[in-house]
Specification:
This protein is mainly β and 469 residues long. The chain has a single domain, classed as 5 Propeller (Tachylectin-2, Chain A), CATH 2.115.10. β19 and β20 form a beta hairpin. The chain binds 2-acetamido-2-deoxy-beta-D-glucopyranose (4 copies). The site of one 2-acetamido-2-deoxy-beta-D-glucopyranose has 2 residues, from loops.
């Protein structure tokens, strides 16, 4: 998330009464939401597409073929309201699509489509049998204590020692407010949330593994600062779990990375401090641990105009004095890096604050570049959905062990008026070998495999995926 040019909109929380005011409006919104749900549901039609089946090259498992069926999503936008606020007009001027415009409108009659309510929450404790393991992008997702998962801007570590997945992310279960009139919507730092799972669906809350600093106002983690996009990798040599994260002040002028370590994946992590990598600004960032054990920091820099990539030192606690500048002038953020058959891939978003925009896939033979842009990886849904990354922003791409070329694309559907209620959009991402089908994505660059993120309203990993080889 970046601060300039970001989408700014008054929230319903502008009065001074703080949380009281907030809970009153929440009740009203819940009531309105219920009413609208009944009245407007008929506005929405969903339909499964004809299922243009893409030839599967990665794996011939039939359940993976299902994930590659193109699923259409028809969203009937309500007629435009007679009077548009100057603010809305200004937004349109910025060529935001009508769908994104609707998405950002807190009064939208489609609010329940973008942010479905509690009654449709995914509850792995309650759901059993054949209904298990389904992901529903955008729905509230409960942990095993039946609280909404708080792991925004997150990433997943597979811990080989315990054969367990750990999901780390921003714990944002606090009040959304603005530090000052022109500031971005924010939640005070609470800390980094951590959840564990064996099946990537049932998540146990392991607590806050790196907590905000409550008292010391000069500390990086002081609550009024910013902690975003925490990512954890394991160092095979030091046997430490190392967390890197975006550290900033409320105005996003510090633009640094913070580093923390732990002996165990479920913390607590010890905060070691922050730095400006290679002496440059660093905002949205990620880390990538390569097969040879070398790890890299990838970060948006130079006012978000350029992405920087550089290797870490062997202990992952610092950076080597090597850095490459990529996508110069292209303004990409929210990087998520993965690798398949020796080729590096990256998904990025544009820079529009909390508002969704078009994702791009990139590929490179060396992680330091040169990187080539392949195009928008989103498949299915509808055009407006695809150019808004299904109303979400990339945060991580998780490889599925045993299924070469199959990944889970993890993204955040930010809710700028109530950031704690931001949702997770997980979808299958498939890297397909060079194909002779003429394709809008690769026709220009036949050298690279195609990267596709398939929209599904409901999907799950092939049953028994974790035991397939
Ligand atoms: C879901 O329930 C919680 C408390 O039970 C409430 O605070 C929240 O506003 C609800 N969210 C929605 C989207 O209905
Ligand atoms: C689950 O699905 C299988 C195969 O489709 C079916 O035979 C079985 O009856 C289902 N079980 C339940 C509880 O619905
Ligand atoms: C507050 O934090 C700063 C920066 O981490 C540190 O140098 C200082 O010692 C801390 N002060 C106290 C009282 O803990
Ligand atoms: C952030 O910017 C606002 C407005 O420009 C200013 O009043 C405030 O002091 C700044 N805060 C910090 C922490 O720099």
């Amino acid at each position: 998330m970046r601060m300039r040019n970001l989408y700014r909109k008054p929230t319903t929380l502008r009065c001074n009464a703080g949380s009281r005011c907030y809970s009153a409006s929440a009740v009203i919104w819940s009531l309105l939401g219920c009413l609208l749900l009944f009245h407007l549901y008929s506005n929405i039609h969903h339909k499964h597409g004809e299922g243009r089946e893409v030839q599967l090259r990665v794996t011939n498992h039939p359940q993976f073929r299902e994930l590659q069926q193109v699923e259409e999503e028809i969203i009937q936008l309500p007629p435009q309201k007679g009077k548009r606020s100057p603010r809305a007009a200004k937004r349109r001027h910025k060529r935001v699509t009508p769908l994104v415009d609707e998405f950002l409108d807190e009064d939208s009659r489609l609010r329940h489509v973008f942010f479905p309510g509690n009654n449709s929450a995914i509850d792995p404790v309650k759901v059993t049998g054949n209904d298990s393991y389904y992901y529903y992008p955008g729905r509230i997702w409960l942990d095993t204590d039946r609280n909404p998962i708080q792991a925004h801007g997150g990433g997943i570590l597979y811990d080989e020692r315990s054969n367990t997945y750990y999901w780390y992310g921003e714990y944002k279960d606090g009040l959304t407010y603005r530090a000052h009139k022109r500031g971005a919507a924010r939640v005070d730092i609470i800390g980094v949330g951590c959840y564990s799972s064996k099946d990537l669906w049932t998540w146990k809350n392991e607590g806050i593994v790196l907590a905000a600093e409550e008292m010391n106002g000069t500390h990086d983690l002081y609550k009024s600062n910013v902690l975003e996009r925490p990512k954890v990798i394991f160092n095979d040599k030091t046997r430490k779990y190392v967390m890197w994260m975006h550290i900033d002040d409320a105005n996003y002028t510090k633009a640094a990375v913070g580093i923390a370590i732990s002996d165990t994946p479920d913390g607590p992590f010890e905060y070691l401090g922050s730095q400006r990598p290679h002496g440059y600004e660093s905002r949205d960032m990620t880390v990538f641990k390569d097969e040879d054990g070398v790890a890299y920091l990838i970060y948006s820099s130079e006012e978000n105009n350029v992405l920087h990539i550089g290797p870490m030192t062997e202990d992952y606690l610092n950076l080597m004095p090597v850095m490459r500048r990529v996508f110069v002038g292209q303004r990409r953020e929210a990087p998520a890096v993965f690798k398949h058959q020796g080729t590096y891939y990256m998904i990025t978003s544009g820079c529009t604050g909390w508002a969704p925009n078009e994702a791009l896939a990139h590929a490179a033979e060396s992680i330091l570049g040169p990187w080539e842009t392949l195009g928008n990886p989103c498949v299915g849904g509808n055009k407006m959905f695809r150019i808004a990354t299904f109303l979400a922003q990339s945060t991580f791409v998780l490889p599925l062990p045993g299924f070469s070329g199959s990944f889970i694309f993890m993204a955040d559907r930010w809710n700028p008026s109530d950031l704690r209620d931001s949702r997770y959009v997980w979808l299958p991402l498939i890297v397909e070998g060079p194909t002779h089908h003429s394709s809008e994505y690769i026709s220009r660059l036949p050298l690279w495999s195609r990267v596709s993120i398939y929209w599904h309203r409901k999907w799950r990993l092939p049953q028994g995926w974790s035991t397939f080889k």
